TrEMBL record:
This is Homoserine O-acetyltransferase. It is found in: Cytoplasm. Pathway: Amino-acid biosynthesis; L-methionine biosynthesis via de novo pathway; O-acetyl-L-homoserine from L-homoserine: step 1/1. The record marks 192 as: Important for substrate specificity. Its EC number is 2.3.1.31. It is an enzyme of class 2 (transferase). GO terms for molecular function: homoserine O-acetyltransferase activity; homoserine O-succinyltransferase activity.
Length: 305
């Protein structure tokens, strides 16, 4: 089944060239099936790339998915054309009265700031509070996961001595949980961050469940016990070249950046990166859509509470 996206969205052409099953708005209007409505709050600076990453991850499902993109009104993106934002994005006041089957909150390059120092923090907390009653399940990514854990559960983030950067092995801590169904006992996932949350803080909180972790990268997947909040501290949605692009960008800025762990064959940036996480990423998003959204959401969206 397809993912439904606006006819003119740039990601559509990229995904169609990859043989990803997408469907334009015009064709979708003639189908008698209610799609899952997913709201994506995109806080990443390169929004067009992030759109493609997430739409690719959401497409591997037998469910039709309809996506709305949301941006903050209290922060103006400098890296995405204004024409693109005006064409494809809404602000919170435009969706405040809507209900959604699911919501995704992305990461953002503001990890080294205290949460309260982020200029759109008041707006983000309002949106996160709103998501508890207006979305069946919310999926938080990287800094978005840290922000959600802090706001909803008081879990602090801590600075790392150096950037957690590369592809790391992870173990499944709760294999019986539907989100983890089909996962290998040991699997890979990308990380790119300067801060972390502590495992003990998660384990000691009565309303949180640790689903997956890494010996080197630490906490990876956390879930609220009511299954309505999912927190992923890495970037399973990244494509093959994303870490390379980040590495090249940081080198160009003169930053002291290490080669991403377990990414380039022989740790040689001249070699093409190996993709070790693609199947896990597809499984993660399809499990979330199926077990936490589709099977939990009411058919009448207004019944979400």
């Amino acid at each position: 089944m397809p993912i439904k996206i606006p006819d003119a969205l740039p990601a559509r052409h990229v995904l169609e060239n990859e043989n990803v099953f997408v469907i334009g708005e015009t064709r979708a209007l003639h189908q008698d099936i209610r799609p899952l409505r997913i709201l994506i709050l995109n806080l990443m600076p390169l929004k067009i790339a992030t759109e493609t990453h997430l739409l690719r991850a959401l497409s591997n499902s037998p469910l039709q998915v309809e996506v709305d993109f949301l941006m903050t009104s209290s922060h103006v993106s400098k890296n995405t054309p204004r024409e693109h934002l005006f064409a494809f994005y809404k602000v919170f006041d435009e969706v405040r009265s809507n209900k959604y089957d699911g919501m995704i909150i992305t990461g953002a390059p503001v990890e080294l700031l205290d949460f309260e120092e982020v200029n759109y923090w008041p707006e983000l907390t309002e949106i996160m509070d709103w998501s508890k009653t207006n979305a069946t399940s919310t999926f938080h990514i990287c800094w978005g996961a840290q922000a959600g854990l802090f706001h909803h559960f008081g879990i602090k983030k801590y600075p790392l001595e150096k950037k957690m950067f590369g592809i790391f092995k992870h173990t499944v801590e709760q294999p019986e949980e539907p989100l983890m169904r089909g996962f290998n006992d040991l699997y890979h996932a990308p990380h790119s961050r300067y801060t972390e949350v502590k495992e003990n803080d998660i384990l000691e909180h009565p309303d949180l469940v640790l689903l997956s972790k890494s010996k080197k990268a630490g906490v990876y997947m956390v879930m609220s016990k009511d299954r309505r909040q999912v927190f992923v501290t890495g970037h399973s949605e990244y494509d093959a070249s994303t870490l390379k692009e980040e590495y090249d960008r940081d080198l160009a800025k003169g930053l002291d950046i290490a080669i991403p762990d377990n990414y380039f064959p022989d740790d040689n940036p001249e070699n093409e990166p190996l993709v070790l996480w693609r199947s896990h990423a597809s499984l993660l998003y399809s499990n979330w859509l199926n077990y936490y959204v589709y099977q939990a959401t009411p058919f009448q969206l207004e019944q979400i509470q």
